[in-house]
Structures are given as C-alpha cells and as structure tokens.
Write a structure and sequence with these properties.
This protein has about 450 residues and is mainly alpha-helical. It folds into 3 domains: about 60 residues, no CATH class; about 180 residues, Growth Hormone, Chain: A (Up-down Bundle), CATH 1.20.1250.20; about 200 residues, Growth Hormone, Chain: A (Up-down Bundle), CATH 1.20.1250. It is about 75% helix and about 0% strand. The protein has 18 helices and no strands. Helix 14 packs parallel to helix 16 and helix 15 packs antiparallel against helix 16. The longest helix is centred in the middle third of the chain and has 33 residues.
C-alpha cells in the first residue's frame, strides 16, 4: 500500500472523479506534516500519498518505545525539603537539653518524662482535627499556622516560670506539629509527579534524617550558652521555615497552569477504608513507630547504657550507626520503588528491620549492637520513604487527604508511645530479650498485611 501511495503522490484520482484536496496536498510553501498530524488525518488523505501509512506506523511505534524523560522535582518540593531540614535540625536542638531543663524546675523524674511525652500525646489527639482543618482551609495555610504555633510554643518554653507553664507550652506545640506534619504530607502527594514519588519521598526522609543527626551536636553547644537558647533557636528556625514555604508557594501558585492548586474534593476515610493498601499502610505506620522509632531510638540506647557500657558516647554511636544504615538505603529505595513498585520494597525493608531487631536478643557486645542497628537502619531506609510514597499514590493529586493522612500519622504516634511503654514493662518483668522479640514480631504484622494487599502503582505504567 505504501508503494502505491508514493507513486501516485501527485496524480489525481480519476476513478473518484475528484481533484486532489488542495488543503492537504504538499506544497513547497508549507512545512512537512508531522507524524501526529498525519495520524489524525483521514484515510483518503493518506491514500493520496501525503505520507506513507507504513511510515506513520513505524514512527508511532518508535515514539511509543522511546523512554520518557523523568519529570523534574517541582519548586514546591524543594521549598518543603528546605523547610523540613530547618524543622528537623531545630527539633533536635532541644532533644539534649529538654530533660535537664524540665528537671531544673525541681520536679521528679516521672514529671520530667511527662513533659517529654506531652508533645507526642497532644499531637496524637489533635491529628484528626488537623486533618479536617486542612480540608477546609488549605494545606499551605495549615502548614504555616502549624509552624507558627510550634515556634511560639518553643519560645514560650524558654521563658516558662513554672513547671505547669512548661508543660502547657510543650503540649501546645504538639497541636502545631500535627498541623504542619499532615499538611506537609498532603502537599508532597499533591506536588510530586507520580513517576518520581518514591524519589521525592526518599529526599524528604533523608533531609529530615540529616537534620535530626546534626541537630543534637549544635543543641549541645547552644546548651552551653544557657538551657533556654536551644528553645529560642528552634522557634527562630520554624519561623524561617514558614517564611520560605509561604513565599515560594505563593509565587508558584500564580505560575501554575496544571490545576494543582485548584480546590480539590476531600478524600474521606469511607472512601479509602476499602483499599487494602491503605489498611496495610496503617499497620506499617504502627509497627514503624513501635520498632523503628520507639524501640531503636529509646530502648536500645538504654540497653547499651545499662547492660554493656556506661560510657556516654556509646549510646550516641549506636543511634548514629542506625542513621547511617538508614541513609545508605535511602539513596536507592525511593528510585527503586518508582521502577519496581512499592510493595516489594516495603516488605523487604520490614524483614530486614526485623532481622536487625532480633539480632539484639543475642547482643552481648557493643560490636554486635552496632551491627544489629546498622541492619535495622537499612531496613528502615528501605521501607519508610516507600510507605510515604504509597500513601501519596493512594491520596493522588486530585484530592486532599487530610483525614486519611491524619490517621496514618496517628498510628505512627501511637506506635511511638506504646512501643517504649510496653517494652519497659517487658524489661522489668522478663528482660530486654522479650522487648526485642515482641518488637520483631510487630514488624512482621505489616508484612502479612502487604502480602494480602495490591501494589499502589503498576510497574508497566512506569
């Protein structure tokens, strides 16, 4: 057919009695027709010889097979990432000095732990309200308001005159934290191109991790100038983060033409509860908060200090080694999930984390603890950012996901609270081995849930 078309390119079709169509005949004054234009023309035009049908088929096949260039990371994501670093480094500034600062009010050790836990408890309770406010007011506004609340809370703590004031100010910070955490997750879902959601989630998690690792170093130094200085510095860092995000997002909203900033319908829990992947994500969030955050950050350093060595640097080294393993895995896991799917990486990460926690049962030397924490950190780095990307897949870019994201955040906070508490009871009754054994079993629960759930992306689509 293509040969006949080419031979008769300039010859009128006498059998039809019609002259060639002047609008579609090639002309020296006009540009050559493109493949897409040719594919959209009618069959008679193609048969007059304007372009070969075989050439069109070959060209379209080549276009289909050509690899699509990955999209660039949007400016909104870079702004949120920069703000995340400021938030993380600021939050970790107060970690080394908060217990000592609370103790300076002349209270018992129990009341000191209450101040430390008040932030997480209030954030857990206020998360549902923050999710609903996000749907009514908007992500950017809730994000900035949340940062300002935590900044005011932190600065007020520096000027607290009594223990009661300190406790109230610390608790109010949990409200703001719930607001900006859920708003940030919603904006990550909205602004992340679907093809690179895993990469962006890994970038976000890695930035927060770097801030958390470096913050205590500066916090300790600032604490030498006075225990109130880190709290003021944290407040200033949060205000700076609010200015960065507000400025950039206002600017990009005026330039966007893809409708990303247009009002979106809210995704309710009733809509997503039937999604097995969402339910599996909730189980993962609980287990991750329990073992990867609660046990690894709170219980393991305690175990090192009590059972292995009283050297103060040892506990810090254990946490740092876990963070190194986490960072190494983050370099690969996000991009790999964009190509291979979310579910395989989440399951693999959970299994690796469980192996690391189980290894703590036989840890009788510091070297064994370091190896176990490195493995646990690797598993956490494989699964955590990928789970965040899976939640972004579930929410999508066409909805606001305040309520589903608030439940996801609540499950993680619940795990962070229950994990160390139950571990403490087990340690008192049966010893550290039982605490680590139970934590490893908890990590296997989301493995079962994800084995029964579908992936949130299609490898063929990617």
């Amino acid at each position: 057919m293509s040969d006949r078309s080419n031979l008769n390119a300039d010859v009128p079709d006498s059998s039809s009695g019609h002259e060639p169509n002047e609008a579609t005949s090639p002309s020296p004054e006009t540009e050559p027709i493109t493949v897409v234009q040719a594919a959209q023309t009618d069959y008679n035009t193609l048969e007059t010889g304007q372009i070969s049908l075989d050439h069109i088929r070959d060209a379209l096949e080549a276009e289909r097979r050509a690899p699509e260039a990955p999209p660039r990371i949007p400016r909104e994501i870079w702004a949120l990432t920069a703000a995340t670093f400021l938030i993380a480094i600021g939050f970790s500034l107060v970690v080394p000095v908060l217990p000592q600062y609370a103790e300076s009010f002349g209270v018992s050790a129990t009341l000191v732990t209450v101040v430390v836990s008040a932030f997480a408890l209030v954030r857990l309770v206020s998360a549902p309200f923050a999710g609903r406010m996000l749907e009514g007011i908007g992500e950017r506004q809730i994000y900035v308001i949340g940062l300002v609340i935590v900044a005011a809370s932190s600065i007020a703590m520096a000027f607290a005159a009594t223990y009661t004031q300190l406790l109230i100010f610390r608790g109010l910070g949990g409200i703001g934290s719930a607001m900006f955490t859920i708003a940030a997750a919603s904006m990550i879902a909205k602004y992340s191109p679907p093809q690179i959601r895993g990469k962006i989630s890994a970038l976000w998690s890695g930035t927060f991790l770097i801030g958390n690792v470096t913050g205590p170093l500066f916090g300790g130094l600032l604490g030498q100038a006075g225990m109130t200085v880190p709290f003021i510095s944290y407040g200033v860092a949060l205000l700076l983060a609010a200015v960065v995000v507000s400025t950039v997002l206002r600017s990009t909203a005026k330039q966007r033409t893809d409708g990303a900033d247009a009002p979106k319908p809210a995704l309710t829990l009733a809509h997503v509860w039937s999604n097995k992947s969402f339910r599996a994500s909730l189980v993962f969030s609980l287990a991750n908060g329990w073992a990867n955050m609660g046990i690894r950050i709170a219980v393991v350093p305690l175990f090192v200090g009590v059972a292995l060595t009283h050297e103060p640097w040892a506990a810090g080294l254990v946490v740092a080694v876990g963070a190194i393993g986490n960072m190494i895995a983050l370099q690969w896991s996000g991009r790999a999930s964009d190509r291979r799917g979310r579910r395989p990486l989440i399951i693999a990460g959970l299994l690796v984390s469980a192996i690391g926690v189980v290894g703590m049962i036989w840890a009788d030397r510091l070297e064994v603890v370091l190896a176990a924490m490195f493995v646990s950190g690797l598993g956490s780095g494989l699964s955590m950012p990928v789970s965040q990307a899976a939640m972004s897949d579930i929410i999508g870019r066409d909805h606001t996901g305040g309520r589903p994201l608030s439940v996801f955040q609540m499950m993680q906070d619940l795990g962070m609270i229950l994990g160390p508490m139950i571990a403490g009871v087990l340690i008192d009754v049966a010893g550290y081995s039982w605490a680590f054994g139970v934590a490893s079993v908890v990590l296997l629960l989301p493995v079962v849930a994800w084995l029964l759930a579908p992936d949130t992306i299609s490898k063929r689509a990617n």
